[in-house]
Amino acid sequence: MRKGQATRERITARAAELFNTRGYGSTVIADVMAAVELEKGGIYRHFASKDDLALAAFDYGAGIVRQRVSVAVAGAAASSDQLLAVVEVFRSYSANPPLPGGCPILNTAVESDDFHPRLRERTQAVMVELQTLLETIIRQGIERGELRPATDAARLATVIIATLEGAVMMSRLLDDPNPLHWAADHLHTHIHTQVKLN
Question: What's the pTM?
Fold first, then answer.
């Protein structure tokens, strides 16, 4: 890897951690400069603006989530096991978040809602990607006779994501892993008893 590319990746990774813990609005370029030990020109040599850095940092964090989900799903054969694998990825956030500060998708969705349309669009795209993945798993499970035919793929995918992300938020806010574990346990029970064909 060329030195310039390595520097860009180091800036992106540290900025992702800063934005995810402090928030986009509360993090200034001076914070990034201190974290990576570069002058302002060293940052702007790689990024045209703070907004461009924020987009790259979000992509970095979302990429970690995407990789964890992809590996988990690939390691499961049956569609119900694939759904449960996604649940377990989110459950692991209580002990091993993708970035310091928790879920970058959740954090960015909350913060970018009102003031950063490009970041909001990027976050929406990642959320739609996750929902589409879950819907695809569910539809394939129905086609293979693994999941109940009456299962509404869009509804179940939405409930899974909303339950997990809400539980991540509660666990972070309360500094208590139990909400996340209880939500994951609930989804396990629901998938086994209401979705999976025995």
Answer: 0.92
